[in-house]
Structures are given as structure tokens and as C-alpha cells.
Amino acid sequence: RTAPASVLWAKPRPLRAKGAVNPAEVFTISIDKNNTYKLNNDLISPADLEARLLSAKLEKPDTAVVVRPHFELPVQQFVSVMDILQRAGIAKVGVMTLREDKSTAP
């Protein structure tokens, strides 16, 4: 049996989400349980982190960041990073918790 003439068939196709980000262009901020900051695996101070993010935002307004706080990090330290992101004007932010340091894993 065939479909009535008024029914339109469309082949599904993947859609790129509005505002989707290229993962290769995402900055990753890691904070270990000793409050050591890393930007894309490079040690960085909070002041330098803010300067780098401000510069990145000027170059690319839709800059995206993933924050990876250690699960034992005090909440206030995490909030400090979120404050830096807010001052830099970065709105595309994801959070992923780090369960353990790679250097201390068995």
C-alpha cells in the first residue's frame, strides 16, 4: 500500500545544535584538590587565567570553557573560577568533576 499523496516523507538528517562548539576550540580549566589551576594542562595562576580568558573572548566572542574541579575541591574555590569566567564574559561553560588525580591513581 502506498502513502496518500498529501503525506511528505523526509529523510532524517543530523542537525548541528544552535550554538554548538567545536571541541578542539574549547578551553579546559582543571583545578586539583590543592587548588592548583591548569589551562589546557598548563599550570596557570588565577590572575593569568583571567587575562588569558579575556584575551580569548576578545579574539573569539563565543569562546567556550569546560571547568574540571576535583571532587574534593571546596565549593568556594570552584565559585572563584566561575567568577573569573563571569568577569571575562564567557557564557558557554560546562562542568565535569575529576574523581582522582592521574598521578596518584593506582
Key features?
106 residues; alpha/beta
Write the layout of secondary structure elements.
Blueprint: E1 27-31, E2 37-39, E3 42-43, H1 46-59, E4 64-69, H2 75-88, E5 92-95
Parallel strand pairs: 1-4, 4-5
Antiparallel strand pairs: 1-2, 2-3
Helix pairs in contact: 1-2
Output the radius of gyration.
20 Å
The beta-strand count equals 5
Choose one word for the global shape: globular
Oligomer: single chain
The share of residues in extended strands comes to 15-25%
- List unreliable stretches of 5+ residues: none
- In round numbers, the mean pLDDT is 82
Structural class of the secondary structure composition?
alpha/beta
Largest sheet geometry = 5 strands, mixed
Strand order of the largest sheet: 3-2-1-4-5
Query: Helix share of residues?
Result: 25-40%
Head-to-tail CA distance between termini: 63 Å
H/E element order: EEEHEHE
